[in-house]
Amino acid sequence: MLPGLVDLHVHLREPGFEYKDTIQTGTAAAVAGGFTSVCCMPNTSPVNDNQSITEFILEQARLAGNAHVFPVGAITKGSEGKELAEIGELRHAGCVAISDDGQPVMNSLIMRRAMEYALAFDLPVIDHCEDLHLSEGGCMNEGLVSTQLGLPGIPSAAEDVMVARNLALAELTTARLHLAHLSTAGSVRMVRAAKSRGIRVTAEVCPHHFSLTEEAVRGFNTHAKMNPPLRTWQDVQAIKEGLRDGTIDVIATDHAPHAVQDKQQQFAAAPNGIVGLETALPLTLALVEEGFLSLEAAVAKLTTEPARAFGLSKGSLAPGADADVVMVDPEAQWEVDPARFRSKSRNTPFAGWKVKGRVITTIVAGRVVHDAA
Amino acid sequence: MSLKRKDLVSIASLTLDEITLILDTADSFKEVSGREIKKVPALRGKTVVNLFFEPSTRTRTSFELAAKRLSADVINFSPSSSSVVKGETLLDTARNIEAMQADIIVLRHPDAGAAETLANGVKSSVINAGDGWHEHPTQALLDLFTMREKKLNFKGLRVAIVGDIAHSRVARSNIFGLSKLGAEIRAVGPPTMIPVHLDRLGVRVYYDLDEALRGVDVIMMLRLQLERQGRALFPSIREYSRLYGLTAERVRLAEAGALVMHPGPVNRGVEMAPEVADSFSSVILDQVANGVAVRMGILYLLSGAN
């Protein structure tokens, strides 16, 4: 029996992209994967940059009745990186953090102001660290495989320079900085150094970034296309080391559903991202099996640590806590079959993987919302 | 012997035996183009569709001639940008063509991997006529054919490939092919045009053209994509030409009798001085002639006509 899992990074696609997933299907996938709380990114259409969108998301989540949904608001209006969104109002409406997600704030002055302004509400500022000039046109890691396949590469430095910038701004502003889906050894190194110097920063990684490398792209497999891209074996090792020593606080999915027709294209044309809610737990438990993490530490990175990063009163089984509980059979082996996903989308590179650790029952606020028994 | 594969999407996926088979088959077709009546009935009743998503004159014409000399019916299909705007995917376009009973689809596409994606999605044979920066296998095969014709032996053959390696499908396909055949490959260009980890593919990287040309048997020049100017890859055509342009003096640094190759079209005075392009060393027009024979060989081997 575990506390319900908490995912700081999902894309529920509603409003705007309901053919990929809806708040109903996305949260059904969440509870099937053991997640009782999810934080949804603002890159919907329209962007979640105002109170009415936030309220709509919360209302749809209430109607769906699956997991708790905590919206993440935009940093700038329309996520265009120009003017600050009405962050106070977003906070008031229920947003738990702000992010411009896949359209990262390139202008360092705007980012500085956003961090300062967010201090007034003690809101975490999330950045998807990517220098859009360095990554321009890229669709996989820049490395041996991109050289062989002739695919435009995204160098590690595209992430590293923005991690460095954000850490400098966090030090300047004392804001709460949360770094999304880190993928490079350089990022892990810099976050480790920043934490040792007392900068307020939390960091997340995704299961695919510690389970796969750029090799998965061979054959132009669009299910291995995501942003940040799959990196090298050395990066994977650095991420695992960062998880072990506490540099990386949180494991989040970056659940990014895309319909079959979206991914069934030539590699460059296919969108970034994979679904992750229904595979995250066994992929994380594999780190326990490998001896990289204790079971307690692995569970903490899916429960108490994400809750702490965003100040959510979740992820705990302490007396008085919300009755969000997940029953897991840690020894159960199963094969990943995308046809059985609750998400509307099937875009996973893990199809056919034999994994260990299965969610049996998920309870949200005292109510059984998923039962595989 | 026959080619036991449906498609030709890359040199990287070919075995040494398959490369040799294609070159040998091309050899037997080369003679056809010299006849009074340049036609054999090998592909009579077969349909070849040239599906070109990028402008191309020489590659398309070469495939068209090759197919016609084998008596195939040929359709040229160049989807306009409007059909892309209409949202039809590559696979849908190709399935429409397949529904009209195309036996072989020759694809040129701006995205790397497009040919492989297409090959996995249709029953017709697919020939990659260039996909993004990835591969241009028929170009490499005609280059290898030309080298073999002039130099006979690949073992230890020293080949310098000069120019924008990073963005060149011609360079990639030649590197994969030459390394399978045992040649020594040198890549030359400014560091901005050398892809990462190229050395791990068995290629020696040079930034200095004079140094790289010493003792080589083949100089393969790449076309400078002039539209890349302004993308910080090189400061000016003037400086590029001074540092990496092939002049008659530079040709003299290579082995006596070294071949000068270029996939065309040549930017005269940019990557190659006009007197070099027109010199006795230049085999640029042999490459073009051999292109038809090589493509005849590939069409023949993939058509199952043998």
What does this structure look like?
The complex is a heterodimer of chains A (373) and B (306). Chain A is an alpha/beta fold. Chain A has one domain (2-371): TIM Barrel. Chain A contains 13 helices and 14 strands. Chain A has helices spanning 23-32, 51-64, 87-93, 108-119, 144-149, 156-173, 185-196, 207-211, 233-245, 260-263, 280-289, 295-300, 304-310; strands at residues 2-3, 5-10, 35-40, 68-73, 97-99, 125-127, 140-141, 153-154, 177-179, 201-205, 250-251, 325-335, 354-364, 367-371. In chain A, the strands form 3 sheets. An 8-stranded parallel sheet of chain A has the order 2-3-4-5-6-9-10-11. Chain A has a 4-stranded antiparallel sheet with strand order 1-12-13-14, covered by helices on one side. In chain A, helix 5 links the parallel strand 7 (140-141) and strand 8 (153-154). In chain A, helix 1 (23-32) packs across helix 2. The mean pLDDT of chain A is 97. Chain B is α/β, with parallel strands linked by helices. Chain B has 2 domains: 16-134 and 289-302, Aspartate/ornithine carbamoyltransferase (Rossmann fold, 3-Layer(aba) Sandwich); 137-287, Rossmann fold. Chain B is 39% helix and 15% strand. Chain B has helices at residues 16-30, 58-69, 81-85, 90-99, 114-121, 137-151, 169-181, 209-213, 237-244, 248-251, 274-277, 284-303, and strands spanning 47-52, 73-77, 104-109, 125-131, 158-162, 184-188, 203-206, 218-221, 259-261. In chain B, the strands form 2 sheets. A 5-stranded parallel sheet of chain B has the order 7-6-5-8-9. A 4-stranded parallel sheet of chain B has the order 2-1-3-4, with helices on both faces. In chain B, helix 5 (114-121) links the parallel strand 3 and strand 4 (125-131). In chain B, helix 1 crosses helix 6 and helix 6 (137-151) crosses helix 12 (284-303). The longest helix of chain B has 20 residues, at 284-303. The mean pLDDT of chain B is 93. The interface between A and B is medium-sized, with 20 and 26 residues.
